[in-house]
Specification:
It is found in: Cytoplasm. It is an enzyme of class 1 (oxidoreductase). Pathway: Amino-acid biosynthesis; L-proline biosynthesis; L-proline from L-glutamate 5-semialdehyde: step 1/1. By secondary structure, the protein is α/β, with parallel strands linked by helices. It folds into 2 domains: about 160 residues, NAD(P)-binding Rossmann-like Domain (Rossmann fold, 3-Layer(aba) Sandwich), CATH 3.40.50; about 100 residues, ProC C-terminal domain-like (ProC C-terminal domain-like fold). About 60% of the residues lie in helices and about 15% in strands. Strands 3-2-1-4-5-6-7-8 form an 8-stranded mixed β-sheet, with helices on both faces. Strand 5, helix 6 and strand 6 form a beta-alpha-beta unit. The longest helix is centred in the last third of the chain and has 22 residues. The chain starts with a strand and ends with a helix.
Length: about 270
C-alpha cells in the first residue's frame, strides 16, 4: 500500500485500527499518522510503535491521503466542518454513529470520497467484525484499500447505508454486549452449582470461544450443532427445552432488533 493513512482519535477503536494496520506487511510505520488531544497518549504510541504523531489535525491531514475519523458522534461534524477545505480531496472513513453520507456531501461537497464504517469492540483483540457503507464516489480500487484496512483486525462486510444504520449497528456494533451478558449469566449459573467465580468465568469463556470456532469452521447450521449435543431425555435437551420455554430466542432476536431501531432513530436525529 503506497498511501499514507492518518487516524484522528486515539481512543480504544482508533488504537484497535492502528494495531491492525501495524500488522499489515505492505505498510511501514512511516506511512501511519495518529492525532489526538492527549499528548501523553501520543507520546506513548510513538515510543511503542515508532509511528508519526501530532496534536495538530492540520498536520495529519496535510500528510495523509486516507483519513480515518475514529471520533465520537458529537465531535465529528464540528471537526469536519472546521477542516472541510483540507479534507475535501481526501479518502475519508468515519466510524461515528449518526454522521450520514448525505451530511458528508453537505459539508465536504459532491465530489467527496466518504465511507461510513461500523467496527465492534472485538477489534481490540484483532477479532472484529465491521460493516462498510461507501458513497458512490469511491472506486473499486479505493474500496479494496478500505477493505484491507478493516480486514487487518477482523472480517468485513459491505452494505448500504440503510443497512449499516439498522442491522449492522444492531447485530455487529451492539451484539457483543449480548454475548457478554450471556457469558456473565453462564458463569453465575456455574457459581450457583459449585464452581468458584474464576473457574466459572473461565469455563463460560471457553464454551463461548470454542463453540464459536466450531460454528465458523464446521460450516454446519447452528441448529445442526445444537442437535449434535442433545441426546434423548439428556441434560442438554433439558437445557434447550428450558431456555426455549424462558424465551431465549425471542430475547436475543428482539434485543438486536431494538438496538437496530434505536440506531435508525439516532441517525434521524443527527
Amino acid at each position: 500500500m503506497e498511501k499514507t493513512i492518518g487516524i484522528i482519535g486515539a481512543g480504544n477503536m482508533g488504537q484497535a485500527i492502528l494495531s491492525g494496520l501495524l500488522k499489515t506487511e505492505d505498510l511501514t510505520t512511516n506511512q501511519l499518522w495518529v492525532s489526538d488531544t492527549d499528548q501523553d497518549k501520543l507520546n506513548r504510541l510513538k515510543d511503542q510503535h515508532q509511528i508519526n504523531t501530532t496534536i495538530d489535525n492540520t498536520v495529519l491531514i496535510s500528510k495523509c491521503q486516507i483519513i480515518i475519523l475514529a471520533l465520537k458522534p458529537y465531535i465529528i461534524r464540528p471537526l469536519i466542518q472546521e477542516f472541510a477545505p483540507q479534507l475535501s480531496n481526501k479518502l475519508i472513513i468515519s466510524i461515528a454513529t449518526g454522521y450520514t453520507l448525505n451530511q458528508a456531501t453537505q459539508d465536504l461537497g459532491k465530489q467527496v470520497k466518504f465511507c461510513r464504517a461500523m467496527p465492534n469492540t472485538p477489534a481490540l483483540v484483532g477479532k472484529g467484525t465491521s460493516g462498510l457503507a461507501p458513497n458512490k464516489n469511491i472506486s473499486d480500487e479505493e474500496l479494496s484499500t478500505i477493505l484491507s484496512i478493516f480486514n487487518s483486525f477482523g472480517q468485513t462486510i459491505i452494505v448500504t447505508e440503510e443497512v449499516l444504520n439498522s442491522a449492522v449497528t444492531g447485530l455487529i456494533g451492539s451484539g457483543p454486549a449480548l454475548v457478554y451478558i450471556i457469558a456473565e449469566a453462564m458463569a453465575d449459573a456455574g457459581v450457583h452449582q459449585g464452581l468458584t467465580r474464576d473457574q466459572a468465568m473461565s469455563a463460560a469463556i471457553g464454551v463461548l470461544a470454542g463453540s464459536s470456532q466450531l460454528l465458523a469452521e464446521s460450516n454446519l447450521h447452528p441448529g445442526q450443532l445444537k442437535d449434535m449435543v442433545c441426546t434423548p431425555m439428556g441434560t442438554t435437551s433439558e437445557l434447550v427445552r428450558t431456555a426455549e420455554k424462558l424465551g431465549i430466542r425471542a430475547a436475543v432476536n428482539e434485543s438486536i432488533i431494538a438496538a437496530s431501531k434505536r440506531s435508525v432513530e439516532i441517525s434521524k436525529q443527527s
